[in-house]
């Protein structure tokens, strides 16, 4: 099974890169009701292959960056579904049951893992209909870049709660950012089922490179994929709507540049309390569904107003 997952995923990607796959783009757009006005080029006939379409570019202005010039705000890195955890411990309690899941297994280094021990983490899951480019959630400087080989297990809520350790077993790349406000921030791009490549921009892989919030830093190959962003303990206060929904095991449909959270100030919230998650951060006008069954996985839409601004 593992051999199949390792070898078939890149093969599938090569097949979809062929010119023949381009004829299916319009059917794909219609099926998923994708608004092509939000991308450039907007004409599906301009994409020669499905691979070209998969990593299509956002049209200028279609994804405004929340508080672009204020480094105390972090943003969503991609069009995706998101869940956030005030601590890694909470994430394990709510979603992740992998037998071998640990920070050390993800990073392959106990010293790196210790830097983010029990810190807040956000998980972003991209689906095939999403634009598979990803952007920096913060402004900072690249400390280091590392690539990890691995499998191509499908990363979804069902697998995360199974005995499959997809998070730390899959092929992935990690970049550590040094920031003025958040200290170190770890960005991990993980290949999923159907993904043969995880590509960071070449300039982003260089230690010392300056990265601004919202800047494109890479893209995935074909298939569903996942991004994990780790913060050091006590640094970020995730938005209240994200925390509340995540506490109810509800994934939120979000877009690149939307608000993720803000720098934690003294006295503006406590992390690590699952039951109190709804009292943290900014609500953005979204309330959780108290009737949600704990065994279900539900996706809800976040208001688009959270793209560029936050309620006062």
From TrEMBL:
Does the keyword field hold Lyase? yes
Its GO biological process annotations read: phospholipid biosynthetic process
Q: Where is the composition biased (Polar residues)?
A: 280-292
Hey, what's the signal peptide range on this chain? Answer: none
User: Where are the compositionally biased (Basic residues) regions?
Assistant: 302-312
GO molecular function (one): phosphatidylserine decarboxylase activity
What InterPro entries does UniProt report for this protein, alphabetically?
PS_Dcarbxylase
The entry's keywords: Decarboxylase, Lyase
A matching Pfam family: PS_Dcarbxylase
Q: Where is this region: Disordered?
A: 263-312
Q: What is this protein called?
A: Phosphatidylserine decarboxylase
